[in-house]
User: Fold these one by one.
Assistant:
Number 1:
Amino acid sequence: MSKSYTVAVVGATGAVGTQMIQMLELSTLPIKEVILLASKRSAGQTRTFRGEELTIQELVAESFSGVDLALFSAGGGISKQFAPEAVKHGAVVVDNTSFFRMDPTVPLVVPEVNAHALSAHQGIIANPNCSTIQMMVALEPIRQQVGLKRIIVSTYQAVSGAGARAIEELKIQAQSYLNEEPVDQWQTEILPSGGDKKHYPIAFNALPQIDVFTDNDYTYEEMKMVNETKKIMEDDTIQVVATCVRIPVVQGHSESVYIETDVPADVADIRQWLTNAPGVVLQDDPSQQLYPQAIFSADQTETFVGRIRKDLDVANGLHLWVVSDNLLKGAAANSVQIAEALHEMDLVRVP
Amino acid sequence: MSKSYTVAVVGATGAVGTQMIQMLELSTLPIKEVILLASKRSAGQTRTFRGEELTIQELVAESFSGVDLALFSAGGGISKQFAPEAVKHGAVVVDNTSFFRMDPTVPLVVPEVNAHALSAHQGIIANPNCSTIQMMVALEPIRQQVGLKRIIVSTYQAVSGAGARAIEELKIQAQSYLNEEPVDQWQTEILPSGGDKKHYPIAFNALPQIDVFTDNDYTYEEMKMVNETKKIMEDDTIQVVATCVRIPVVQGHSESVYIETDVPADVADIRQWLTNAPGVVLQDDPSQQLYPQAIFSADQTETFVGRIRKDLDVANGLHLWVVSDNLLKGAAANSVQIAEALHEMDLVRVP
């Protein structure tokens, strides 16, 4: 494995792209060269990678000539158009958008859970949705021991999942509130979903809509959690349902997760399994008021789990509180971990 | 019913007490006189009631002489000490603290659900916990039609539930964040629970602890929702479990509620039942992005319900999003509604 890779980052100026560059800096992946790609508008800007100043180039099909690995996070439309181009040029694509996730020929991977699925890749690997990834990291160690029948999750999601402009909007609204400006005069242009018709305040509010609604009155975000869980865990029989809510947090998604396992499990055992699990940090001691908190998960790559307790009535029912930085394990860190797993499994090549 | 009452407000300067005075101003209750009581520290301050300036008096046992109705919201310790004194002096007490709620001789009342329980009062009536009340208002109309087996609720609770100082702390922390002060230098003295050992930031965070922890690793807030639901609905067989979370919202608790009914119900029917239900405002039209939002529930006395949808797997499973102003329907408005019901049922007397 004396290979060394040319790695392209597509969407290098975005909230996730910025984190991808940082994650690559920290990565064990042998990197020969990093190429930063973005829209024409951002071309010419510079970013630093391991002390070297790199100029951002405009994304075109030819950008992928000589690229071994391309990490995409520039929206589904860009992935749809350019990921196949990258593959044609011989690059393996790790795509952070939802565009290819449910394509049966595309592995959908959380390395701690289903790295084995990478073996079947045909050039494109999809990175799951942020809210799905952290739930998978927390639940897989439990599922391996006692199975998993059912998940009911309510999320508390950070605005950074909606991009840099949403963060800015939250800050502007928070200042408006502190200035005692009436809420109907706040700037509200982005949330709950940039592409939807109406926009609502997020500062000092909770919005039970992430992404747009589907025909069954669930949102796309909710259905992503449902469908991606089944694909990643390779089990269509798991019952999954979600309520996805945006709250005024900048970084770090929190999740209130109820599960039913095949066999009842003791809390002490679950704590032990999670202590030993890859990518998990157990923070669970009510006597010390120790539990995961979004604000302290920021800039961490792990998934934090606490508030583990038995259901009060159902013997195989359990409740957990799961927190992770949505831009890192939820996006950039998971994408780079997929790239590292591809390298370790000698799969950085288009079949 | 040509009676007219002398009404005492105990804890008149607090977040809830302030709202109680406003709710009494708007009330249909025939009021002869209002007496405002608080600690020695607040005595001498004035408040306006229907254009009249009232001086706050120090709370002592003799304060209740000539009082017909006393609304308490000054902490459990004050209720423990002074509610029996009020009753001795002939006043009927509506207590907003948790102190008497699970006392089998004390009715625990949400007027829309179990006003009939008032008939058995022996001088003290308890107002349920804020997070319980709004859930009861939303679920009772459904339970009456198709029964109720099970509730799993995750809450998104406002800081005003922790009092005026918690609101101030949120604002100070929000400004600290906007000033880019490091989080370890923020003022954190109140939340998650004033009486607990450790305090954490709430601005741009989510805290999965409200009140202190009990021996079973649930918090008191969570166990209140469990035990109070069974008492109010007069059914110990209902399975209830809660995860209670504080989020950076000033007014308005939101709840992600999953229920299983005895008999499956159509969403269209549920919408109709809730449209006709007392105290409920249906806000449920995904095509118009219409759903309840905490920030718009502020200063409203109703409970707002939306995001109603069938579970994806369980035929009798349903999900709802329930929002209400925690200081109003969750506290002051419900207390005054209890007083109004007592008047209408001719029960404003100590038996």
Note: The first strand of chain A starts at residue 5 and ends at 10.
Number 2:
Amino acid sequence: MAVIPMWMCDRDNSMHESKKEADAHDKLLELAEQFTMLMEENLKGVDEKQAEEFGLLLARNKDKVVQACKGKPDALNDLLVEDGAKVTPTKAAKK
Amino acid sequence: MAVIPMWMCDRDNSMHESKKEADAHDKLLELAEQFTMLMEENLKGVDEKQAEEFGLLLARNKDKVVQACKGKPDALNDLLVEDGAKVTPTKAAKK
């Protein structure tokens, strides 16, 4: 059988078929972590899980964040509708 | 006595000596509000005051946010040190 080279991103142990993809994923997680760290430092008592997911939301939509910062603040509006509903805690809340 | 034209930004009733300055201030507040709205939608139960101040922190440092999104995530590190301490609730916490 064939053996296929894969690339693991050690930030979250995710597997990727190309180095490029793994690098992009690593950069995404790094940016997310930076936003989350900033949040945790400035929003005392913020829920860690939510801060992580909000960091990911910003990192995943970094193009829109850049647009907003470059004079089109309402570019962030798309995140309110588009991603707003999707950011739910990944593990179902224990009853 | 002289009468001097001033420009008021109606988002926070701040007064500015030039239209350019007032416009820049208005854009800053608009960007801050967008970040804050996004936060309040995604961080259920986040403290409103903190969300407002964090929105302002990002808006005030939008150049660093753009740098981070464009491949230099550690640009946000400067905000951890530089602004980290300054973002304290404006009114002293009641004892």
Note: The longest helix of chain A spans residues 19-42.
